[in-house]
């Protein structure tokens, strides 16, 4: 029987293989293989979500990001929050944008992406002449 460390190492190798396969279109399948070996390894969940986001399948990406957040072997927990925030931004759900980028900062207080996005959102909300066709983060 494999130990948790051995499963995580094996899943990590499949995850890296998935990165290499990205250009060949097999990345999601390789990530699924990594998940099958270690369902608690968070990186493949996040990467599946990123691949789906890059294909414009934002709603399909959300459950993968949420699952990444619950994985016990995952060190970069701010990334799912950043990506959930990006999805909310695309949908113009400003409250969710603020919530997700705020959560990213709670997890990773030095995230410049989260800080800049929250500052831009705050500036927009304080910009009385903002027109809806000018884009979310412009005044």
Write up this protein.
It is a single chain. About 70% of the residues lie in helices and about 0% in strands. It has about 140 residues and is mostly helical. It folds into two domains: about 80 residues, Alpha Horseshoe (Serine Threonine Protein Phosphatase 5, Tetratricopeptide repeat), CATH 1.25.40; about 60 residues, no CATH class. Helix 1 runs antiparallel to helix 2 and helix 5 packs antiparallel against helix 6. The protein starts with a helix and ends in a 14-residue tail after the last helix.
Uncertain regions spanning at least 5 consecutive residues: 131-135
E-strand count: 0
Biggest β-sheet: count, sense, barrel? none
The shape is: elongated
User: What is the N-to-C succession of helices and strands?
Assistant: HHHHHHH
CATH architecture of the largest domain: Alpha Horseshoe
Terminal CA distance reads 59 Å
- Tally of structural domains: 2
């Amino acid at each position: 029987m494999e130990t948790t460390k051995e499963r995580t190492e094996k899943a990590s190798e499949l995850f890296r293989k998935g990165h290499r396969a990205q250009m060949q279109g097999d990345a999601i399948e390789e990530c699924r293989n990594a998940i099958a070996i270690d369902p608690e390894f968070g990186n493949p969940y996040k990467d599946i979500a990123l691949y789906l986001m890059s294909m414009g399948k934002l709603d399909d990406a959300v459950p993968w990001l949420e699952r990444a957040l619950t994985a016990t072997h995952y060190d970069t927990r701010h990334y799912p929050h950043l990506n959930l925030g990006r999805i909310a931004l695309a949908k113009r759900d400003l409250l969710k944008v603020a919530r997700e980028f705020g959560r990213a900062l709670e997890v990773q207080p030095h995230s410049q992406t989260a800080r800049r996005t929250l500052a831009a959102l705050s500036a927009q909300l304080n910009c009385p002449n903002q027109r809806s066709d000018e884009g979310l983060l412009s005044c």
